[in-house]
Design a protein that fits this description.
With 71 residues, this protein is mainly beta. It contains no helices and 3 strands. It is globular, with a radius of gyration of 14 Å. It starts with 15 loop residues before the first strand and ends in a 33-residue tail after the last strand.
Length: 71
């Protein structure tokens, strides 16, 4: 698990870029913070969940793309 406070930008928004490959997760937040981790999800896990503690989340836009295999 990753946790911590993320600062909003001047427009009170949090811009997230999340990249997920088979076992690598990389996430970038407002071009200031980043995380990278090896993960091994269950093959049946096909979703993503966003949430906020003690508040609400409004998603202005969401773009999901598929990555091509390198093999």
């Amino acid at each position: 698990n990753f946790f911590g406070n993320l600062e909003l930008d001047e427009d009170k928004k949090l811009v997230m870029e999340i990249y997920l490959d088979r076992s690598l997760l990389e996430a970038f937040f407002n071009e200031e913070r980043a995380i990278s981790a090896r993960i091994y999800p269950d093959p049946s896990s096909l979703g993503i969940q966003l949430f906020a503690e003690n508040g609400t989340v409004n998603v202005d836009s969401l773009y999901i793309a598929t990555m091509k295999s390198i093999y």
